[in-house]
């Protein structure tokens, strides 16, 4: 162990720490990790390296991000229609949602293309949903084309969304009730005199204002024919609001007219899961691109598939996951080849998918090659509706978009693959309470890219949650929000070259970066090998707070400026991390550079970091690092950011870094280059 200390006080602190904390070190036997370690691999361990690994220029083994973002780069899509050709008009104050919807349908019928919105201000009184591939909504620039989203509840404060009196409804018709969200306690849907659905507020209901059932739940209880739907919204002050509508139940109705999805002002929606579950016949192994299935019936090369290992009881016990819901071990891939019951997929698995936990695949039908570009979008009503949402979407993008006062998320992905958000500005949100709101990042998304984004007054950002893996957020600035691995076993995501100015005024926690702990009943723990590289983090509380069950996180070449608390804290089987080349500036004279709070924080390497201020100690707590070497401590002062030899590990990989076998690991062209 070597410690280069440039102040007498710091040296004394280090010596006292070593004497007190590590007395009897020879007899100490560190606890074993909760499962066999997989991710801390040395470059010389060729037998352990897989296609999912890339040896970095610093000798550290990183995840493989060479297939991240829109494959082949964001295309230049030709204009095939203008909104004016479908009766949309800028600056007239009228509703343009119908015109935009018709224009999108028209370019879809041509096989795809862009719909152009000219300079001026357009108004959407109704959401617009795109359900066909290749549709791009484009303005003249965020400073020229404005879209004002004005969807609002009627004066009575409650309504059935998308239904008209006398509509015929079949088994698949969504019955959606909207109600004024402030103080909302419950929503009830009745058919005739029978209660068929009820929603009640819970801890994470946030700004919920909608509840939905399929009409089949009504048709299964009532005879076909006329009925009256009644929606009742109950409020915490004891008041209630009611809406009624007469409809006709028709169990033989095969299809119902498509209604715009209310979840976003502009939503790009794929069909989603399509086909039965097919169980794995052997474990899906990290780093492999072949999956053995019990059957390949119905699958063909080129198909998109979803793979999941459900949160089985044994896995939850192993990870100490106290959350009773959520999404964890998931991924989406494309089939390249089928040989009997074995399929070859487009990328190596990032984590294990065990047969014992019921791992399976399903075909998925995403929307593809769609985007929104060069416009400004603002929401006028405090309703939990996102600005732009990519749902079950592959190779879709937002570029050059400014979103002001989103209702939920500004631009967001959910079940998205190879998507991009770039050159965007997100400014403020209507609601910033709990339940999932005002986030900038990737949620249940895979291999997506966010680049050159600036946010203001968001709650959490940059953020990953619910099974998000392989995503990159880079070269972006986040004002007044904290960075988060917010929930659900996120793994192998990268935050690099970002500035995070954490605060608590808009719902953030005050840490620079926070990862949910396993005892959190609403979020659950996060998974392996998330990476923070060459970032600048400013926070009132600890710079990095890792809640536990985190394996081999790589915290490299960052600057943490911390008001109170340690530079980094880990607990509860947070193991095999590498913290190297960082600068920690600690204003708290009681704080250490790194706190390993529990003895099961093992295998951690802490080297070549610079500590300014704090108590002069590099490590405190019950855990003991495996390596502590080359760190330096100095009195509190401003200190510059580190200058890594490779400013971007993402671009270094994309530009042709050699993989474990010495071959290029699969880089594809990207608009990020």
**Stretches where pLDDT falls below 50 for ≥5 residues?**
1-24, 658-673
How large is the count of helical segments? 5
What gap, in angstroms, lies between the N and C termini? Answer: 41 Å
Widest sheet: strand ordering: 33-35-38-41-44-47-50-53-51-48-45-42-39-36
Q: What is the helical fraction, as a range of percent?
A: under 10%
Indicate the radius of gyration in whole angstroms: 26 Å
| Percent in strands | 35-45%
Main β-sheet description: 14 strands, parallel, barrel
> Structural class of the helix and strand makeup?
mainly beta
Count the strands? 53
Q: Any idea what the shape is?
A: globular
Question: Mean pLDDT, as a whole number?
Answer: 93
List descriptors.
673 residues; mainly beta; 14-stranded parallel barrel; 13-stranded parallel sheet; 5 helices; 7% helix; globular; disordered N terminus; disordered C terminus
Report on this model:
By secondary structure, the chain is mainly beta. Helices cover 7% and strands 39% of the residues. The chain contains 5 helices and 53 strands. The strands form 6 sheets. It has a 14-stranded parallel β-barrel. Strands 7, 18, 26, 28, 30, 32, 34, 37, 40, 43, 46, 49 and 52 form a 13-stranded parallel beta sheet that branches. Strands 19, 20, 21, 22, 23, 24 and 25 form a 7-stranded antiparallel beta sheet that branches. A hairpin with a 4-residue loop joins strand 16 and strand 17. The N terminus and C terminus are likely disordered.
């Amino acid at each position: 162990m070597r410690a280069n200390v440039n102040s007498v006080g710091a040296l004394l602190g280090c010596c006292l720490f070593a004497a007190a904390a590590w007395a009897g070190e020879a007899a100490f036997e560190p606890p074993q990790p909760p499962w066999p370690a997989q991710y801390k691999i040395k470059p010389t361990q060729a037998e352990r390296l897989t296609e999912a690994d890339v040896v970095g220029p610093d000798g550290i083994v990183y995840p493989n991000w060479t297939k991240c973002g829109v494959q082949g780069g964001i295309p230049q899509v030709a204009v095939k229609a203008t909104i004016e050709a479908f009766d949309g008009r800028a600056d007239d104050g009228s509703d343009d949602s119908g015109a935009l919807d018709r224009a999108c349908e028209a370019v879809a019928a041509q096989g795809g293309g862009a719909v152009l919105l000219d300079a001026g201000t357009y108004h959407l009184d109704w959401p617009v949903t795109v359900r066909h591939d290749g549709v791009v909504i484009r303005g003249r620039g965020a400073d020229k084309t404005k879209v004002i989203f004005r969807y609002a509840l009627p004066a009575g404060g409650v309504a059935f969304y998308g239904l008209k009196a006398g509509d015929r409804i079949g088994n698949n018709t969504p019955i959606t009730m909207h109600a004024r969200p402030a103080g909302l306690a419950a929503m009830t849907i009745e058919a005739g005199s029978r209660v068929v659905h009820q929603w009640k507020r819970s801890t994470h209901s946030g700004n919920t204002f909608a509840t939905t059932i399929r009409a089949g739940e009504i048709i299964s209880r009532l005879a076909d024919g006329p009925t009256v739907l009644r929606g009742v919204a109950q409020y915490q002050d004891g008041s209630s609001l009611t809406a009624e509508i007469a409809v006709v139940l028709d169990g033989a109705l095969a299809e119902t007219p498509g209604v715009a999805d209310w979840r976003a002002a502009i939503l790009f929606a794929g069909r989603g899961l399509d086909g039965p579950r097919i169980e794995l016949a052997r474990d899906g192994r990290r780093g492999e691109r072949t999956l053995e299935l019990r059957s390949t019936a119905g699958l063909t090369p080129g198909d998109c598939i979803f793979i999941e290992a459900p949160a089985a009881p044994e896995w939850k016990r192993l990870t100490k996951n106290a959350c009773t819901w959520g999404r964890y071990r998931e991924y989406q891939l494309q089939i390249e080849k089928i040989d009997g019951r074995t399929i070859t997929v487009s990328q190596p698995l990032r984590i294990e998918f065990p047969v014992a936990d019921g791992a399976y695949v399903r075909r998925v039908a995403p929307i593809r090659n769609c985007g929104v570009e060069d416009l400004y979008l603002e929401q006028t009503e405090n309703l939990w509706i996102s600005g732009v949402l990519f749902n079950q979407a592959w190779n879709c993008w937002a570029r050059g978009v400014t979103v002001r006062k989103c209702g939920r998320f500004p631009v967001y992905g959910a079940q998205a693959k190879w998507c991009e958000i770039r050159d965007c500005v997100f400014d403020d949100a209507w609601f910033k309470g709990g339940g999932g709101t005002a986030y900038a990042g990737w949620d249940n998304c895979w291999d997506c890219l966010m680049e050159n984004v600036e946010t203001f007054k968001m709650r959490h950002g940059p953020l990953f949650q619910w099974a998000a893996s392989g995503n990159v957020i880079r070269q972006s600035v986040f004002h007044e929000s904290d960075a988060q691995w917010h929930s659900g076993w996120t793994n192998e995501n990268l935050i690099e070259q970002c500035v995070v100015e954490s605060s608590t005024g808009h719902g953030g926690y005050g840490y620079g970066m926070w990862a949910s702990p396993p005892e959190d009943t609403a979020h659950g723990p996060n998974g392996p090998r998330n990476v923070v590289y060459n970032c600048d983090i400013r926070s009132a509380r600890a710079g990095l707070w890792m809640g536990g069950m985190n394996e081999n996180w790589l915290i490299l070449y960052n600057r943490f400026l911390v008001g109170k608390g340690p530079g980094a804290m880990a607990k509860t089987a947070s193991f095999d991390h590498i913290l190297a080349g960082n600068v920690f500036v600690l204003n708290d004279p009681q704080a250490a550079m790194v706190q390993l709070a529990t003895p099961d924080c093992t295998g951690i390497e802490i080297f070549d970091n610079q500590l300014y201020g704090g108590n002069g100690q590099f490590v405190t707590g019950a855990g003991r690092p495996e390596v502590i070497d080359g760190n330096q401590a100095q009195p509190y002062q401003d200190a510059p950011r580190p200058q890594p030899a490779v400013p971007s590990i993402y671009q270094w990989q994309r530009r042709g870094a050699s993989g474990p076998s010495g071959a290029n690991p699969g880089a594809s062209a990207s608009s990020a280059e």
